[in-house]
Amino acid sequence: MKGFRKGKTDKIMTAVALLFLATTLASAQELSINAELRPRAEYRSGYSTPITDAISPGGFMLQRTRLGFEFQNAYMKTHLTIQDARTFGESAITSEPVAPSGALSVYEAWAEVVLIPGGTVTIGRQTFKYDDYRLFSASNWSNTGKAHDAVLFKYQLDDSFKGHLAFAYNNDKAISKETVYSGAATYRYMGMLWMSKKLSEGLLLSAILLDEGMQNKTTNAEGTTTYGSKVDMYHRYTTGGNLKYLKKGCPFDFLATAYFQFGKTTATKDLNASLFALKTNYTFHPSIKATLGIDLYSGDDGKNARKSKTFNWLYGGPHCFNGSMDYWSASLPVAGLMDTYARLSGKVTPKLSYDVQCHVFHTAKELEYNNTKQGKSLGSDLDLKLCYKMNPSVLIEGGWSTYFLSDNSRYLKLKSADAKSRTPNWAYISLSIKPETFKIKL
Fold it and tell me: Which end of the chain is more exposed for a tag (fewer CB within 10 A), N or C?
């Protein structure tokens, strides 16, 4: 039966692709086909969380495969991406799998239709990418990526102003009466307004307002989840914006960010959090670009069960922020976080580029445990990365990172400041193969 289900799934995915091609070829002006094959090997020894000497480091290999089709003409655009994401060894080496393996799915499937001059609507499963990808991102580092089932209205006549309005409402399945939602997509309802305005040459201002409706649910100490009424939702709101200066020919640029969150972080806890960030770059030469930045996430002592000042990660690319070891990317400390960082990057040759970063972490509020104030230090993170572009279709990328622990970071991660652990290290090598896009004009 498992082999039958897998074969049936493959046939369905093939039929979807053929149907997409048949419907587009009937009236196509341009059809493009693209593909991606991205295997990545990783070595983890204390990645994300320290491990003790008694635990051995782990190594594994991931692979992501994508096949995309896109058709467009003067009044519409359609896009389909089929994706398989897996870990080496998930599938049996025989044709009969011993367990469900991989994650064959439709990553993107949307259609964009012109409504008015400068105005379009996009409906279907789609990626959201805004500003510096802190709140919304396709999360390309992830093996599966991120996509939303939504309706998106876009308006843009020229580069001076852009406006996007998005809506989503999720259910577990087709329903005939109102039911609770298990939360596979985190939110049940989502409304988002994003605007971008060009103030002058090189100076850009963007603003966002996000309303997320979460299914009312509580989880007890045993892990049992209890849902509220069928339509009862609590709301989390995020608003703020970015001021960006980036002018062609100017060696200096900067990005200033401010976001505020309010509403509820759970059904019973009020939220009042903020994020302030500033990043500056100076390009001395194509081979040397220096970056200095600081991110400040609000926090509290965690003693008030009904209020929280801890900023919530939304749907961005967390691996891009707070260091590659991801100690404070998946979730932030309750006491908040200050990340001060420096970076050097550039091209050694037209094909070889490098990136070196150092992050120094502190909590926003002083930590207190064992009846003693323990200061704010959380240690630091060092990241090295090299990229080599073999040809227009093949990119090799490799990196190594380490985390220098402090007593506070050991306490937050291992619940003991005196815990003995291995020196955290993480390394990876990735091969990205993207054949040149194949285009047909009909």
Answer: N
